[in-house]
Every structure is written in C-alpha cells, then in structure tokens.
Write a structure and sequence with these properties.
The structure is a single chain. By secondary structure, the chain is α+β, with helices and mostly antiparallel strands. The chain has a domain of 77 residues: Nuclear Transport Factor 2, Chain: A, CATH 3.10.450. The protein is built from 2 helices and 4 strands. It is elongated.
Length: 137
C-alpha cells in the first residue's frame, strides 16, 4: 500500500488533479486571464475568461450580496446567466414565514452583477406562496 503525500500540516494532500477550495471573490486575478487552456477560456462571452468570475462563483456572490441587502437568507438560486456586462441571477427568498409552511410568502429577486461579481442592481420580480406551482403553457 502506498502512503499518501502529506502537506506541511501533516494532513493527506489531495490528488494533483483536484483544486482546493478558494474563496469566491478573492482579489486575485489568478485564472482570469491567460487561463490554463481549458474550454472555459475558449468560450468567449460565457466563460470565466470573459467574466471575472465563473457561473458558480456568480451564484454564490449574488446570494451573499442580496442577503446583505435584505437581511434574509436566500433559499435558492433558480437561474444564472451571463450578460454582456456580467451576470444575471434569479434568487428565491423567504419573505414571511407562516404555518403551515406551504402558505409562507416567497419572493423572486433578479440580481445583476458586473464582470467581477459585484452587485450593481436588484429588483423583486414576483411574490408567491411557497405551495404555489407555476402554470406551464
């Protein structure tokens, strides 16, 4: 059996193919320009090379910044998409908790982020009860 490599703290080191966790929104330009030649770098308008943050980072940052403004924790991010100027995300927030929980009041917020993942605008686009189902077609 081969012993795993250890880092300076004595903990097993992750295999070299995996990246360790990195804070979203760190001030580093690492991986933003020039990249590693991955598909994301070649995509142009939708990848991290064209935007300062990736889609998952944009989701987390949108939720964190909206929480700071509203003082309520987002329940979920229901959409995230690149725009010419950054990212747009739709976030679901519990606005009024009721019993039973299916009658709690929820709200959808549309959040706009710049290329670096900083919130530049938001608006509430919908209010609904948690138990409400969207009608299709």
């Amino acid at each position: 059996m081969v012993a795993a490599e250890e880092d300076e703290t004595g903990r097993p080191r992750r295999p070299s193919g995996k990246k360790t966790g990195r804070k979203a929104g760190g001030g580093s330009d690492e991986g933003r320009k020039g990249g590693d030649g991955s598909d994301e770098d070649r995509k142009g308008g939708t990848g991290q090379a064209a935007h300062g943050v990736s889609a998952p980072q944009a989701m987390r940052r949108a939720a964190e910044q909206l929480r700071g403004l509203l003082g309520r924790a987002p329940e979920s991010v229901s959409a995230v998409r690149p725009t010419d100027d950054g990212w747009q995300a739709d976030i679901e927030v519990l606005e009024l908790e009721r019993v039973p929980s299916t009658t709690s009041v929820m709200a959808s917020y549309r959040v706009l982020l710049d290329e670096e993942g900083e919130l530049v605008a938001y608006e509430r686009t919908r209010r609904y009860t948690r138990g409400q189902i969207d009608r299709s077609g």
